[in-house]
Amino acid sequence: MVYRIHFTVQDLARTRVSEAPMPLHELELAARSLQSRSQPAHLGAWRHRARAQLSAQARMTLALMPAVGCSPGFLSPTKVGAIEELLEQVRSTPRERVRTDLLEVAHHRPSLPEWSRRLADDASLFTDICTGLSHLHACLLAPHWAQFTEHLAADRTLRLQQLLTGGVEQLLTKANPQWMRWNPPVLEIRMVDGADHDLHLDGEGFLLIPSMFCARAIVTHGRPVSVSYPACADQSLRGHTALAFMPGHVTSPSVSTLLGRTRTLVLTTIAKHQGCSTKELAARAGIAPASASEHATILREAGLIRSLRQRNSVLHSLTPLGLALLNNPSGSRAPQLDSVGDLGGVEINCQGFARR
Q1: How many C-beta atoms surround the C-beta of residue 11 within 10 A?
Q2: Are 244 and 46 within 8 A, CB to CB?
Q3: pLDDT digits (tens, 9 = 90+) for 73-86
Q4: Comparison of pLDDT for 165 and 139, the residue scoring more
Q5: How far is CA 51 from CA 34, 135, 138, 294, in A?
Q6: Strand-strand pairing, 15-17 and 206-211
Q7: Which one, of 145, 144, 146, 115, lies nearest residue 132 by Cα?
Q8: In this predicted model, what pLDDT tens digit does every residue of 301-320 receive, in sequence order?
Q9: 232 with 174: CB under 8 angstroms?
């Protein structure tokens, strides 16, 4: 069956790729992959390690995020930001929103756990679910987040090249050809849950979200509507960034010892996304804006980056000294760092639930 998304001229003009990773949206996709029996074999070791670390609360939260089917939208907003801030937003979800989302999901998933009916009114139970969400992030994403953001950045570089050389048509045609087909002015998406539906964007625009764990195409209702797709599925990008699930991976150990893990992450993020603003830097590095600003100040005072104020933003770029430090972390000649461009996410106010 096919999910048909109808574009207007305005929607085509407002079609874009997400500009930074969306941690909770990606976490939901990771949770689904953990439970799926049809995921690629290369996820086997990751799944084995993660399952051994799951707490009781994390397993409860998993029950609301099935391998296939609807899930409550309040648990996985398609938003950019530091994970701590996003988790706090989930904890602050109005109870009426929790109740509405669960009723909508129950309409499509009669097999929801019995205890989920009490979630909107039982503060202790809701706290357990939020704690479980935090535990899931610590098990599934946190150990690999630096690698994931690099991989997603590489994907967005390819999509921007496609947009530049072939316009929106090439972008929609090549992003996920196995599951998506561009039949102007309609994007046709194969759905594993058998959904057959027509959705009209009506000028609200459209967002593509690359994902490390999405194995097909997943439609999320919101403003704008978004579709997640497998990052770097395109053959031309497979050699660009290796996908390796190695906990605690740091690109330059010696630099990390000198600067500290977070400051090294900030420096390498600026190197890969020259001219990024403090807000973009924070989103890409997965830290709070205040922390990003503090680390950028220290790096600037050390002569490793330069910062330029443009209107209400401060833009950061690497200096020759910063580049030399990254290229020679231990004093020996190392391959020059490539700039892979920037990646993705625009903040969306996700309404209701997500269709998976």
Answers
A1: 22
A2: no
A3: 999 998 888 999 99
A4: 139
A5: 8, 12, 12, 36
A6: parallel
A7: 115
A8: 988 998 877 678 888 888 87
A9: no
